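Study this chain:
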Amino acid sequence: MKLIIIGGGFGGLRLARKLSNRKGIEILIIDRYNYHQFQPLFYQVATSGLDASNISFPLRKVFHNSKNVRFRMAEVENILTETNTVNTNIGSFNYDVLVIATGAGTNFFGNAGMEANAFPMKSTAEALQLRHRMLHNFEDAVNATNPLEIQRLLNIVIVGGGPTGVELSGAIADMKRFVLPKDYPELDFDQMKIYLLEGTDKTLGTMSAQSSIDSRKYLEQLGVTVLTGSLLKEYDGKTALMQDGKTIESSLVIWAAGIKGNVPAGINKDLLARGNRIKTDRQCRVIGHENVYAIGDVAYMEEPSWPNGHPQVAPVAIQQADMLVKNFLMIESGTANKALREFSYKDKGAMATVGRNLAVVDVPKPKLHFKGLFAWLIWMSLHLMLILGVKNRFFVFINWVYNYFTRDQNLRLIFKEFYRQPSSTKRSG
């Protein structure tokens, strides 16, 4: 079996590792990056808490001892299902079985102005760009003389009250309290406002009602202005215009309000569901295709417990990969005449951290809710275990311990090669 996996995220990597060194299976992983990215900690890279290398792991290194896994860093141009071919910018590859595990990217919902001026955070590079833009704004504020410009440079707007928006807001609030006043004694950080905008009536809408209440309370304790029922209409790089006509002066808007599947060209648009996700059956097969599968954030599957599709979180991708491993091994061994497994998502809970000693955790069975320090320790432990590589876990743990006792981060470096130029103006210096 020639198996091609597009994407080295949680699902694609899990599938390849489980099938590593299995006889009769040749695996090719294709990804635009040569490293696995631990997305849940992007916000800590963006706020100088962690180095990017601590949450990234070279894909080739993962398979040093594998005899049947190969990797190519390439951009997928299109898929030709009629000829079982994946065309990339470095050449074409044939497959017997194809697994699309391309994940999801930022969804700006067609707003060109927002896409041009707001900062997303769906990759390590974007997290670094956000970090450098934020720090550069503080440097510019030191030199600015116009009070309005200073206010604009200090204000930060985060759009989206899901886990990413909540965690990022809390981390920036901690920086405002403990780090920035020491770095920039010339500035009055009482003027700095952190706004979290959420279109619905609550934060962490996918979690329990109690988690929503607790997260909002924690954010407000940290000094974050939480605006629920607020939709951002336009942003030109200087002024954020709300649907109700209100404005916020800010040089930094962070977009965490939505995602859409990264669907390769060649997939019939009739097979796409809401959120640009590929429709699959219960075995993760793309509808109408016997040898093409989709897993993770890019896949849309309905099952009785999840009639509107699964949440776009790592456990879904990991569990789908585990099921595919069992089915592929049955197919390869010639026992596929037995009933292949169908996917059923086992929800083990959800969690989000807000700040130091502040987090919320929901467990569905038995139905439990944790908050505060205990929830924060649960969050830290589980995320630490999921990080790839012993060295990466060690460095993340050391950074967390250091940050906890010093209330400081030592990664506030500005590298201009990572700085994303605004679309309308050029920066100099």
Remarks:
- Confidence is low (pLDDT under 50) at residues 424-429.
- Residues 277 and 298 are 5 Å apart (CA to CA).
